[in-house]
Amino acid sequence: LNFLRVQKIVIGDFKFDNMMLAENLKIKAIDFGHAVFEKKQKRLFSDKDIKNGKNNHKKYLYIAPEIRNGQRCSSIADIYSFGYVSREYINDVIIKDGKVSDFFEHCLVPDPKIRISADVALIHPIFNTLYDFVFCFADIKNFEISDNDTKIKLHDRIIYYEHPEYSFELHCCCSKNKREFSKFKLNQNQKLLQRKTTNQEEAEQRAYKLLKFRAVVGNHVLPIQHLTFSYHNELKKLFLKLNIEQVKYKVVINTLKEKTTRKKIMIKILGISVLIIVIAECLLLSIIYRINNIKNK
């Protein structure tokens, strides 16, 4: 849906019957019979249909209100349909989760002007669990490794990932001189969650934290939440490698710390030993001096 948003295409009657799952788990949209470009629109319901109430028939309720009412629409209309049909498929127990119910409330806002768009929907905290493996890699030392056809290079908080099919850069959340997103802008005052509990506030903070990363694919600078499913898999592999490098780095650091600690202890012991020897010599000289004085008397 976000891809279609960028292309300014409206499916119009989005439903799971028109979605196919390929062998590689990629989702394919089919049946664009009612699809239109935002600039060249056609009405799905005539004035007669609207007058007779056909547009509000139960079987059409998944279609966005602006389409059913014969108004101009944008790709945000498909978000309404997505929210409607998704909610029908999800178990009631899951919907009791605050983040899930909040997500659907965003999708099903009747007014398209304030309804969530596909690009913002992707960064909603409901999807945080997809990125549990992501962490700040600023403390990892620069490295370069090759594994079969994959090359990974970390330099100055930027990862360069090269694969015959997937190549991208990943800028750490704390990288300096962050590049602006190419086709995404989130209003700083915009809240991802409307009704929040303590746990939901933490989830929202996590979502904003993820937004600090930058994925550069070709000429496009994207939030990592906007990467496609294929790139997401490569991202998981990448952070698995990073995790290994982080463990190695920590082992090296801990070893160096242990060596440094040992050196400090040895220096202290040596210093104390020298001090004891000096004190002993001073005492010995003092005793000898007193003995000589006694003999002279």
TrEMBL record:
Residues 1-127 form the Protein kinase domain. InterPro entries: Atg1-like, Kinase-like_dom_sf, Prot_kinase_dom. One of its GO terms (cellular component) is cytoplasm. The chain crosses the membrane at residues 269-291. It comes from the Eukaryota. GO terms for biological process: regulation of autophagy. Keywords: Membrane, Transmembrane, Transmembrane helix. PROSITE patterns: PROTEIN_KINASE_DOM. SUPFAM superfamilies: Protein kinase-like (PK-like) (SSF56112). One of its GO terms (molecular function) is ATP binding. The keyword Ribonucleoprotein does not apply. This is Protein kinase domain-containing protein. It comes from Hamiltosporidium tvaerminnensis. The lineage of its organism: Eukaryota, Fungi, Fungi incertae sedis, Microsporidia, Dubosqiidae.
